[in-house]
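Milestone M4 deliverable, item 7.
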Amino acid sequence: LISLSIRSFVFPDGKDLCVRMEKMSEERDMNRDLRRKSDSSGVGTERLVNPRPVSGQVTADADHCAGCSTAFTLTVRKHLCRACGDYFCAWCSPVKRAVKGYSEPVRVCDVCNAAADRQVDGSDPSLIGLDPSQVANHLRHLNDMEALNRIYKAKIRPVEQAFKFSEFYDSELNNGDFRSRPLCLLIGAYSSGKSTFVRYLLERDFPGLRIGPEPTTDKFLAVMYGSRERVILGNAAAVDTMKPFSGLSKFGNSFLNRFEVTELPCPILSSITLVDTPGILSGEKQRVERGYDFEKIVRWFSERADRVLLLFDAHKLDISDEFKRTIETLKGHEDKIRVILNKADSVDPQQLMRVYGALMWSLGRVIRSPEVLRVYIGSFWEKPINPIGAQNAELFHIEKQDLLADLRGLTRQSAIRRVRCQPRTAPTERLLKFSSACVNFGAG
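Output delivered:
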């Protein structure tokens, strides 16, 4: 009774304090909208956010956050993003910045804020030297991935957390899984030219590079773009949510000690991330215990990779037992596999024809696919072509251009793959729901 009388004394109409404050805030926002000015009079015009048309029917009656699906309550207020027109909670719209049409910085959501940060103003070194069309496609891809990340957080991840989806199938996705560049996985026997191929694409050496006729690469090495040259150990990369390697922590320290991430300010890395794997052993060497499950780790990378390159030496076409088991782990991802017949300049044209036929026969016994695998023939290193295979120089040049074009097209394929991965988890989640219902029914 005392509290009611005090409330009536402060607010004669009996309104609650939170309701009155929220109403005052909405009135203040409406008055701010009336004070819109032209674009030239905006604040901080160097990073203005372009308002986008609202998709769907977004009204002030929205009862859930468009970013995380959190229900709006008296304590969880809704905030209007002045760029896209959706309503968000405070966690999904934490900043204010200049928007065209407003005289002062206003609240925007995290996706619109990230899109504004990626405006082409010279602040992103990875975009320097690219064509305007390539820059536009790159920024469009990042914006689409941010939108897909929002859908995952709002609609899919709550279901995964409720039914413990990560304990049955795979770990949850983080920001790094959506913001990462397309991933290219290199697999091959030792001394097949994997590390040399990476150096050939980068046109420079990089930390952790070791090249030799013996098995020199004894670790998984991810080469990705960075503003400065540095090496990140596997334990640090596995806990970094801005990188797509958090799921590797389940393989233990024995693997993380054999995993490194190298960051370089290299132009080609602005559109692709390369993962070099240890050389696959043969003979008695394949019986040596690595300390971790090599096939399972390759399977983990292949599920997230956009392209898998199998490298073969023209003089070593045999497929060992470990190599066969590794290729069998790629089952279900045959569309990602491309084959590189490396060091093809060391044989003459007649021998090259026989080597190509022997390679396709060996692969046909391992990879069960009705389609013929695409094979790129060449010598992928910086040295001149061997005089023995000089007659095939034009063929090697055409194959090189086709391979580079295939790698450049991974950005679009990466976006399509990640969109397909979202509905692919839906049947598994429905199965988990059905299993949970059966368990509850049996317990009852």
